[in-house]
Design a protein that fits this description.
This protein folds into two domains: about 110 residues, 3-Layer(aba) Sandwich (Rossmann fold), CATH 3.40.50; about 40 residues, no CATH class. It starts with a helix and ends with a strand. It has about 160 residues and is α/β, with parallel strands linked by helices. Helix content is about 35%, strand content about 25%.
């Protein structure tokens, strides 16, 4: 994505790697990402450019599939994630826990990377963000369809 394009975005929605924007002048939150950055091939450049367009102290909010949840469920023998995933998100052929893990990671070929909070925090810090925190679903900005199973993280551009 070009720096010119990202400089014009205030709110960013990513669906299948394409970008759609809506300007919302009433929010200091300048970059907010819904759906999945796991679809973007050049993540480092995306985070650097996102930081660049934020005003000092501006907030960056990201929601990605929460990969820690299925991995912990797998390791602990907890079937609740897998039952929900089969009912809500995954195709019928995902009939084993490992099929579900593989589908979660890749969703066909759409996902390029999987995140947990530790990884997202490190990636954002490496791009120059500060005040990085795991946060909850916010119905004023987040998609209700993605409430369950999403890792929400907020960060700020340093003052």
């Amino acid at each position: 994505m070009s720096t010119y394009l990202i400089r014009r975005l205030i709110f960013i929605w990513i669906y299948g790697g394409s970008y759609h924007s809506e300007i919302n002048p009433h929010r200091k939150c300048i970059a907010s990402i819904f759906s999945s950055i796991s679809n973007i091939r050049q993540k480092r450049e995306f985070f650097l450019e996102s930081l660049c367009v934020l005003e000092r102290g501006g907030k960056f909010r990201v929601g990605v599939p929460d990969t820690e949840w299925p991995i912990l469920a797998y390791a602990n023998g907890d079937s609740s994630y897998f039952t929900l995933a089969r009912d809500k998100w995954h195709p019928g052929w995902c009939d084993t826990r490992m099929h579900n893990i593989n589908f979660h990671f890749r969703q066909g070929a759409e996902h390029k990377y999987a995140y947990d909070y530790e990884t997202m925090e490190k990636v954002l810090a490496a791009a120059g963000f500060s005040s990085i925190v795991r946060t909850d679903f916010d119905p004023t900005v987040d998609s209700e369809a993605r409430r369950t199973g999403t890792l929400y993280v907020e960060a700020r551009k340093p003052d």
